[in-house]
Each structure stands twice: as structure tokens, then as C-alpha cells.
Amino acid sequence: MAEEKSYHHGNLREALLMAGLELLQEQGASGFSLRACAARAGVSHAAPAHHFGDMKTLLSTIAAGGYMALAQTMNTARKSAGTDAARAIEAIAAAYIGFAMGNSALFSLMMDGERTDGANADLLEGVAALKAEIAAVAAPASRRTGPAGPHTPTLMETFLWSMLQGLSQLAIAGRLEEGGAISRQASDLVKTVSTLMLEG
């Protein structure tokens, strides 16, 4: 009866996603199952398959939510930095690395091409939102001309995302100096790279 009531009000899908996220945070993707997700949500074991089809689709939808949350966090940080291009890069870097460290299991899933479906519409939308935030701060760098000539926006966006991803992985693995959400070592590197980008 409880399952029917939740489904009638359209809450079951969100309940399953919340249960899945909680399980992911507690056990990681390797210990994830549709049955465990259903049990956590308090519904029948068939409920997740009814809404998501299979585990990969459910995990892809959870990952998509992670991308959207990260993009929103970066958007807030970017806007708080004002119009200064270097400060904007530093702000989204701190937001990106801080999110990765605070949500390591979700962040790992977001970057897991085996457990998620790269063609999933929700996931594609989430990735697009994240890339838009990176593009917003990489744009000034792509307009500069240095010794190597002008750089395409795509090149600068990929370069910046690669740096953010690499620093996040190092931070999660404990390979950077201690120092809160973003270490002094990472912060100094971001400043150096942003200067190089913006000066061509």
C-alpha cells in the first residue's frame, strides 16, 4: 500500500534516487544493487526496474544529478568571483575540487564509463551543464594569442577540465598537501595555470 501511495503521488522515483545515492555514499558503486536500493526505499524489489529498467540506468540518473549539482556549485562560485577572469577560474576550481572531495563516491560514479551509460539523456544533460560552466571561464583564454598562436575554445575547455579532474583525483587519493577543500598546493597550481592561460 505504501508503494502504491508513493507511486500515485509521483514520489517513488525520487525516493529510489535518494536511496540509491545514500547507498552509493555508504558502499560505493561496487556494492550497489537494485534490490538493496529497493529495500532502502522501503518498496518491492521490482520497483527500481519498473522506473529505471536496469541498474546502469539508475546509476546514470544518479550520476546525472551529481553533474547538475556540481554545475550549480560552480555557477554560484563563478558568479561570486565577479568579472575578473583569473578569479573566476580559481573559484570554479575550488568548487570543483571541494565537491569531489566532499562527494567522492558520487564523483567517482560520475566519471565511471563502465557503470554508467554515456548515451543516457539525463547524463548527457548533466555533462553539458558542467561543460558550460567550464566554457564560461575558459572563453577569455581562448581569445588570447600567445607564442603558440590562438587556441580553440574546445582546446582550452578540455585543458582546464583535465586540470580540475586531475587535481580532484589527487586530492581524493590524499596525494596533495592538507588544507581544507582545496589545498594550498592545488590553489597555487590553479593560479599558475590560470595566469598562463590568460596570458597566452
From TrEMBL:
InterPro entries: Homeodomain-like_sf (IPR009057), HTH-type_TetR-like_transc_reg (IPR050109), HTH_TetR (IPR001647), MT1864/Rv1816-like_C (IPR025996), Tet_transcr_reg_TetR-rel_C_sf (IPR036271)
Domain HTH tetR-type: 10-70
MF terms (GO), sorted A to Z: DNA-binding transcription factor activity; transcription cis-regulatory region binding
Keyword annotations from UniProtKB, A to Z: DNA-binding, Transcription, Transcription regulation
A Pfam family hit: TetR_N
DNA-binding region ranges: 33-52
Keyword Ribonucleoprotein set for record: no
Name of the featured protein: TetR/AcrR family transcriptional regulator
Record lineage: Bacteria, Pseudomonadati, Pseudomonadota, Alphaproteobacteria, Parvularculales
